Amino acid sequence: MKDPYEVLGLHRDADIETIKKRFRELSKKFHPDKNPTSQELYKEMVVAYRTIISEKLIAPSNREALFSSSALTIPSQRIIYNLSLTNILQEGFKVSRDFSTEDYLNHFQADITVQMYRIELIMGYTIPLMIPSRQICPVCGGRSEHCYRCHGKGYISQTLTWSIILPPHTRPGEIVEINLAPLKERYPHIQIRRQFLRIRCHILDMPEP
Ligand SMILES: [Zn+2]
């Protein structure tokens, strides 16, 4: 593993505010939404940042628990898909005539609510998202009424798992927009009409792990 201080270009004795500021500056430049070629670099930066922050903020005895089996990933039972998203997904990302996508988003604000501990927000945990999707039936190409795979529907529904890194220092209640363009690029054959998903983090009112 590379020296995390070197990755972020920081002095070893940098204080928390300096580290945060540096990370924000670098994120602005290298976040994959702004610069798709820098995805790997951004991941490396987040890992370096988590390492430094955990060294500075967390007692060594707790550090191990935090970094252990979960690999800094939020468990799926803490990820809640809101009604608006469920509706939109069921419709293959089409919304009914009476509602525009905008209406849905304004009304419900966030598509996904994630319950997180404060320290997880600070560190920027990974959130594995389940994205229901629809694709043209690979067996009949959507052309057979008697297809055994799609039963004549012409398409099949499936769920994709797509992990995103929540930017470190997301504030509780803040809405984070997730750009779906990289997902569309990776799976060009699936139908996703939306350009963004909105995630909101809710603080767990329980002792930190
Ligand atoms: Zn078929």
Report on this model:
Helices cover 36% and strands 22% of the residues. The chain is α+β, with helices and mostly antiparallel strands. It has 2 domains: 1-57, Helix Hairpins (Orthogonal Bundle), CATH 1.10.287.110; 72-203, no CATH class. The strands form 2 sheets. Strands 1-2-7-5 form a 4-stranded mixed beta sheet. A 3-stranded antiparallel beta sheet has the order 4-3-6, with no helix packed on it. Helix 2 packs antiparallel against helix 3 (39-57). The relative contact order is 0.15. Bound molecules: zinc ion (ZN).
Bound molecules: zinc ion
Q: Which class best fits the helix and strand makeup?
A: alpha+beta
How many structural units, i.e. domains? Answer: 2
Radius of gyration: 20 Å
Q: Residue ranges: pLDDT <50 for 5 or more in a row?
A: 103-107
Main beta sheet strand tally, sense and closure: 4 strands, mixed
